[in-house]
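Protocol step 4 of 6: structure prediction from sequence.
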Amino acid sequence: MSVKKSAYELLRWLESEPKIQELRSLAKELGVKLKRTMKKRDIMKKLRAKLEDSLRDERPSSSATSTGAEERKVVIEPSKPPSLPESYGKDKLVLLPVNPNWVYAYWDFSEETRRLIKEKAGKARFVIRFYDVTYIIFDGTNAHRTFEADVDLHWGNYYFNVPNPNADYLCQLGYLEEEKFVPLLTSNVVKTPPASPFYGKEEIWMKISRRLEIKRPSEGMKVNPVERIAGSSQMPAFVSTENVSGGGAFIWQLVRRGQSGGIR
């Protein structure tokens, strides 16, 4: 085995299980001292250690010769994330529920709608109208409630406060011209979540071990006991009922006597 081969190639050669005579010959060429009584596995262990040391020494020199006399630093600039377009050129008004009293709307316009908006700029007032359409099929005039807000169409999106939780809403983006509302875009219908827990008429329980579903009537919401306030049930004897004009006068007399009361 010739030492002219690289250390990497010699390590690969050791994996081919060479004969012990070949291993001793390679050890002599590499300058590795061996004992006559050494077994094959011990010789391979020493040769592998020698070659791995040589491989570590070769790496900087081989990289230097491959890149030339001077090292060149390659600077990789991070790629910039692709930017989203400001507009997709399509008419769109989307409404999303946020919580019981807030909704989020975003919109986009086609080129035709943008030209119309440009013509109306300065002549009309742009607004967004919201309609409470809970449990109805909306025909443009039969909403439970209608309310509007001025809007800058360049915003593209905004959050709006709505009065009722657990209600269905839709909105229209348009302009007011001579007190007449002209819609440009109409959104989808969304339902705001309720502001309080929902108590059903039945409870559903599961027995995991048997995969059994059990239904039973709900016990309803827990009702806390009624608490009494001192002086709320009967008029104390020291208070004259003739001069009491209402709850305020009665409480004032209690305060003056140091008996304003509290929750028992």
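Step 5 (inspection) to follow. Residues 7-67 form one domain.
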